[in-house]
Design brief:
The complex is a heterodimer of chains A (about 325) and B (about 450).
Chain A: E1 2-16, E2 19-30, E3 34-38, H1 45-53, E4 60-65, E5 68-69, E6 80-83, H2 95-105, H3 115-121, H4 137-150, E7 155-159, H5 167-182, E8 186-190, H6 194-200, E9 203-208, E10 211-217, H7 218-223, E11 228-234, H8 237-246, E12 250-252, H9 255-258, E13 266-271, H10 273-285, E14 290-295, H11 299-314
Helix pairs in contact in A: 2-4, 3-4
Chain B: E1 2-5, H1 17-30, H2 32-54, H3 73-95, H4 101-106, H5 109-116, H6 119-152, E2 158-159, E3 165-166, H7 168-199, H8 204-222, H9 227-232, H10 237-240, H11 251-277, H12 292-315, H13 325-346, H14 354-357, E4 360-365, E5 376-385, E6 394-402, E7 407-412, H15 416-419, E8 423-426, E9 429-432, E10 437-441
Antiparallel strand pairs in B: 2-3, 4-5, 5-6, 6-7, 7-10, 8-9
Helix pairs in contact in B: 1-6, 2-3, 2-6, 3-6, 3-7, 3-8, 6-7, 7-8, 7-11, 11-12
The chains are: A alpha/beta (about 325), B alpha+beta (about 450).
């Protein structure tokens, strides 16, 4: 499979005074993919997204966006759109006026620029004539996405695009991003919501204190995760408890740690994939019915926590 | 999987200034306060001039205020005086003082930069859009006040500050020219507003800077400062337009005031531009350039004042306050002669020319206890004149209140048949005796006549 790279960053370093925001970052983002950027607060995600948008220039390293080298600020090529630190919207204008003004800024007639189409795509048609002043955070996020869509981007850069979205809004955004990727647009998004990243992204880069601690397919990260916590509900919790204790590679998580997830008949079991398989086999052989077996936290979240904690420990 | 670099995209496309200008204009005109100001500037002056012109009591302490019943053109000049003092500084504050800070407040800089991709073009677009709105506001003040005056009072001759009559067409032209001249200090204030908006970010001081600077300049103009300092301030053209309403026109102060204002506009705009294009837009908590505002924003302007003072002091003949006994006597005699002719016509007496009157004035300040120069209300003048075929010399006394900017108000102090309060019948109705109280102005740059 031949995939073209929309972003190719090598050894990117960016400092603000004495603070090293990015420390030798490498990043590849393929066209037609949604790439997640995750990391704790202050990890350098927004700085990296700002570089992709051309708002700043790296102190060292090389950055190519859509095949063009970027060596100075505001020099990102055409086809790059998005926002960092929330979308830039003008509260005294309506949603439609915000988009029409942006279309006019790019030399396009508001009537033919597809303003109504993108408003419809993000689910804001009903409030198109309302001033943005009264919009919720979620509505602003969707309007920001609509503004980016107007430019028909080849690289879309979004900082926390699902912040403040209700389930319906989130569905709209997910649909839009999936459609864009299917059409060949590269999407880079940062998020603290691992469920969003898992649902949307085919690849993920985890950043901690300005360094990449993992970059690759989400599946690979899950496979490398090791032991995960599972909530187990059975027909006989006492028997299940004994079986967990007897199964190699499976452990009961202390109830004080497991908290509400281990209440009632539920147990919280920590196991790798092999240990979990063995436990299920033993439960079936013992005639204990398995009513529920679910991950307490997602593999991505577990990996994220493990990797970032390890990074902190190394430091 | 094989990864290849995407085909090179088009080079960054920068938005032309004209499109950016339209974008900025849309944003400005969508703000309720800008709309309110536009409405106020196009309606307010008409209401104020219309109402004032109908009232029995006129704003005689304002230049041309006492003539608001006599001609519709006086109302626009009263509004110009008020605008230079209050309205224009406030309008420029709200428009130019906020045009950059608004993006900080809304957190939209990054969005704008990604869209336009050129701080230089953003600056140009914002500066031009603010200028457009300010011009619309000034046009509103001028047009509304003039239209209301002409409609309510009438298109009649205007009495100038040297007492001569300007025909309605001349008056209209000079009123328009006076408003155009006031654009120069307005531009200077607007440039200071841009500078404040950039250097002080979201701070309210940034928004208020033009109004504060204008207030400081007004206070300075009230003080007995040397002429060179007075003319070095960018707001002097808000006063110097009065020179258009004398004959000959007091062009020197007017041109100097305009040039100084325009230099300020250019320097302050250049400083604002210099600071703006060097700004770091990656910080979301930017709140002005902090201490650099003093070194980059204030010090160059202080240096500009010092340089201007030095240039004016060396290149113009005027020294001290510019208000000297000889100039005051000459000005008063001229005004008196013109108004005497007017009074003669209003009283249906035989016409007499200014040359025949051979008017002269003798002024004294403080009864000889102080120097006969400088502003103050202690000036007492005796005007003498001759009438053809009459041997006796006419005399009239006036008390003068001379302000530091060269304007004076003359109050008749007898004989009451000449300069006392009585009503005269004019073609447009009864009016106070024109020689009772009147305004005049002294050219601060002119040299005093000898002898």
């Amino acid at each position: 499979m031949d995939t073209s790279l929309a972003v190719r960053a090598r050894d990117i370093t960016k400092c603000f005074g004495d603070v090293v925001a990015l420390d030798g970052i490498d990043l590849d983002v393929a066209s037609g993919r949604v790439h997640g950027l995750v990391g704790p607060n202050g990890a350098g995600k927004t700085t990296l997204l700002g570089l992709l948008l051309g708002l700043a220039v790296a102190d060292s390293g090389s950055l190519e966006i859509l095949g063009a080298p970027v060596r100075r600020a505001l020099a990102a090529p055409d086809g790059v759109a998005g926002f960092v630190d929330g979308p830039g919207l003008y509260p005294s204008l309506t949603a439609r006026q915000n988009l029409a003004a942006l279309a006019a800024l790019r030399g396009r007639d508001a009537r033919t620029a597809g303003v109504d189409e993108v408003l419809d795509e993000v689910g804001l048609t009903d409030v198109a004539s309302d001033r943005v002043r009264g919009f919720s955070l979620g509505m602003r996020q969707r309007l920001g996405l609509a503004a980016a869509l107007l430019t028909m981007p080849r690289l879309l850069v979004l900082d926390e695009p699902t912040n403040g979205l209700d389930p319906a809004g989130k569905n709209h955004v997910h649909r839009v991003l999936t459609r864009l990727a299917a059409d060949g647009t590269a999407v880079v998004l940062s998020s603290h919501r691992m469920d969003d990243v898992e649902a949307l992204c085919s690849e993920v880069t985890i950043v901690s204190t300005g360094r990449v601690v993992f970059s690759g397919p989400v599946d690979k990260l899950s496979a490398e995760s090791g032991e995960l916590d599972y909530r187990l509900v059975t027909s006989d919790s006492d028997a299940a408890r004994q079986l967990v204790l007897a199964t190699p590679g499976a452990h009961l998580v202390d109830e004080s740690v497991a908290g509400a997830r281990a209440t009632g008949n539920a147990l919280v079991v920590r196991a790798a994939v092999g240990g979990l398989d063995e436990l299920v086999v033993r439960l079936v052989h013992a005639g204990v019915a398995v009513r529920e077996l679910t991950l307490v936290i997602s593999p991505l979240e577990a990996a994220f926590l493990a990797l970032t904690e390890q990074q902190e420990g190394d430091r | 999987m094989t990864a290849t670099i995407a085909a090179p995209a088009a080079a960054p496309h920068r938005v032309p200034v004209l499109r950016g200008y339209r974008f900025e204009l849309v944003k400005l005109l969508s703000q309720w306060r800008v709309r309110l100001l536009l409405l106020a500037s196009w309606v307010g002056p008409a209401v104020v001039v219309g109402v004032m012109s109908q009232q029995g009591s006129l704003p005689a302490d304002t230049v041309f205020g006492r003539w608001m019943h006599a001609t519709g053109w006086a109302g626009s000049l009263v509004m110009l005086g008020f605008s230079g003092t209050w309205a224009l500084p406030v309008l420029t504050s709200v428009v130019a003082g906020d045009v950059f800070a608004a993006e900080d407040r809304l957190g939209t800089w990054r969005h704008l930069l990604v869209a336009v991709r050129s701080p230089r073009r953003i600056f140009l677009a914002k500066a031009l859009a603010s200028l457009t709105v300010i011009l619309l506001l000034v046009a509103g003040l001028a047009c509304a006040s003039a239209a209301a005056g002409v409609l309510v009072v009438g298109n009649r001759p205007l009495i100038g500050l040297d007492g001569h009559l300007l025909a309605p067409a001349d008056a209209a032209g000079k009123v328009l020219l006076a408003w155009v001249c006031a654009l120069a200090p307005t531009l200077a204030l607007a440039a200071i507003g841009l500078l404040g908006s950039i250097t002080l970010g979201r701070s309210p001081i940034g928004l208020l800077l033009p109004a504060l600077v204008a207030l400081a300049m007004q206070v300075a103009q009230m003080l007995p400062l040397p002429v060179a300092v007075r003319f070095a301030l960018p707001g002097y053209a808000f006063i110097a337009w009065r020179g258009l309403f004398t004959s000959p026109t007091q062009l020197g102060p007017l041109l100097l005031g305009i040039v100084v204002s325009l230099v300020w506009a250019v320097v302050a705009t250049a400083l604002a531009y210099w600071l703006f294009v060097r700004r770091d837009f990656t910080s979301t908590t930017y709140d002005g350039v902090g201490r650099r505002a003093v070194t980059v924003g204030v010090l160059p302007l202080v240096a500009l004042v010092a340089l201007t003072v030095a240039v004016i002091a060396v290149s113009t003949p005027a020294t001290g306050s510019g208000i000297e006994q000889g100039k005051l006597q000459r000005s008063l005699a001229t005004v008196f002669a013109h108004l005497y002719r007017l009074q003669t016509r209003q009283l249906h007496r035989p016409d007499v020319t200014e040359a025949q009157l051979q008017t002269a004035a003798t002024c004294d300040k403080g009864g000889g206890l102080v120097d006969n120069s400088g502003p103050g209300n202690g000036w007492r003048c005796v005007v003498t004149w001759h009438l053809p075929g009459v041997d006796a010399v006419g005399t009239a006394t006036y008390q003068l209140d001379v302000t530091a900017d060269g304007r004076y108000g003359a109050d008749g102090d007898g004989p009451k048949e000449v300069n006392g309060y009585f009503m005269v019948r004019t073609p447009t109705g009864d009016a106070p005796n024109p020689l009772w109280q009147f305004d005049g102005t002294v050219d601060l740059l002119a040299t005093a006549p000898k002898g």
